[in-house]
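User: Last request for today: this protein with NAP, please.
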Amino acid sequence: MKTAFVTGSSRGIGRAIALRLAKSGAAVWFHGIKESAELDSAVAEAGENARKCVGDLSTVESVKQLIARLPEKIDILVLNASVQIYTYIEQFDPAEFDREMAVNVRSAFQLLEAVLPGMKERRFGRIIAVSSINQTNPAARLAVYSATKSALANVCRITAKEYAPYGITANVILPGVIVTDRNREALKNQAFADKLKAEIPAHRFGEPEECAALAAFLAGEDASYITGAEIPVSGGWQL
Ligand code: NAP
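Assistant: Here's the final one, the structure of the complex with NAP:
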């Protein structure tokens, strides 16, 4: 049985990915920054092979503590949790920059450092990063966020290159607008939502399950020759 760890899987896209992996037969570790009813209900929905863990990804120490609680054997690592702060470049805040960079990029290095040696030994591994369409088409007020997503994608590309000989793949999912807690409030503004939908070739927003379907495919045996790929799940918004 494969073991998966999905960061930020108490809610949203991470939750859908973790549930889908559990459904496909993996033992899955769900994760949130904190204990919550959402985290418990996701674990309960996933069934007997699901476990939970909590921890802030913004400090080196808390990530170390989180890693210490995870099983040694992780076959599928999904780097999903992120911080997204809207700000203009002239309002640059070094503390916010550090937090966003730490959660979105530095924690990825720490988690990769923890899981790659075991994957290498077992000659199987799946790294899936959840980036954003902002990686290639950055929106105004998201300079730091977009920079972190580009950085994360480059970490994945390099992981793909370095670890391909060991049966380890690393791929990136680029969601467009997917309805989650992160944007639910903003999307309630009908005029804003309509304007956004008009820009998206599919004329609709995406669902977390549409990202999960791709993650499940990339995590499986059928995707063993796909590595270093960056795949939008966006209804064509990046075009
Ligand atoms: P979300 O609904 O806001 O959920 C965020 C998840 O991350 C929660 O599980 C949360 O835990 C956890 N989290 C937040 N800050 C954390 C921290 N400092 N340390 C550890 N965990 C933390 O997010 P989402 O919309 O599903 O987004 C998931 C991923 O997709 C993100 O990487 C995001 O950038 C990307 N994305 C989303 C969209 C979209 O339209 N939704 C578009 C493009 C890209 P708690 O529940 O404990 O708070």
